[in-house]
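Morning. Coffee machine broken again, so started the prediction first thing and wrote up yesterday's gels while waiting. Chain of 239 residues, entered below exactly as on the submission form.
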Amino acid sequence: MTRSRFSPEDLRSATDPAWFTRGLRYFESGRVQRLRTAPGQVTAIVSGTRPYRVTLRPTGAGLPHEDCTCPLGRDGAPWCKHAIATALAWIDAGQPDLPEPSTGGTEGTGPALKDFLSAQEPEWLVDQLLDFADDDPVVLARLQAAGGMAEAPETAYAELEEAIVEFTPDEGWDTEESGTHRLRRAIDTLDVLADYGYGEEAARLATDALVLYDDVLHGYEDALSDRLRELAEPHHVDD
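Came back before lunch.
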């Protein structure tokens, strides 16, 4: 079984020297907290300008895949100082082998859950989906789109509009409760609409959302606004 093994020198080679130095300082000053393992990943909370959550996942060999909720991490920059600090803390703990995913899948969606769901009555599954849809507009919009329902775009946009209004840039935490996570899910739903044949509607909604994003956040731009702009093409926002 292959596992991701890495050393401080591997980390140093993977990022900007200044970022590595800052990550080393973060590690040495004890900013890495709550280092935890779970099937297929290692997580930690790193104290920076505010707390950020870092996740390391094995890739099969060499350096792991890393995610961080800091602005650089959300924009896709590899190996920010928080991720470097977390990886150094993992090495310091004497566990350079990252935990392997469980046989059931890293997020509970593997064969065991599939077998369970396959054994249930259709009526029970329908009731579960409707319950989820009642609590989650993103789920509702996706189900409506899969069913070819005319209200799918409006459901998706209502959630996107609310997510934009409640979004606070750089709030740090990218969890279920964070505005960043909610807004990213709402934007991703536009992709789902396009996949189900609502391409023109999805582009129009992205255009409208981009105008709202600019109005609410006063010209602030980040990876989320870039994603909206990409989805809005070939529609264009008037200057």
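The mean pLDDT is 84. Going to sketch it on the whiteboard this afternoon.
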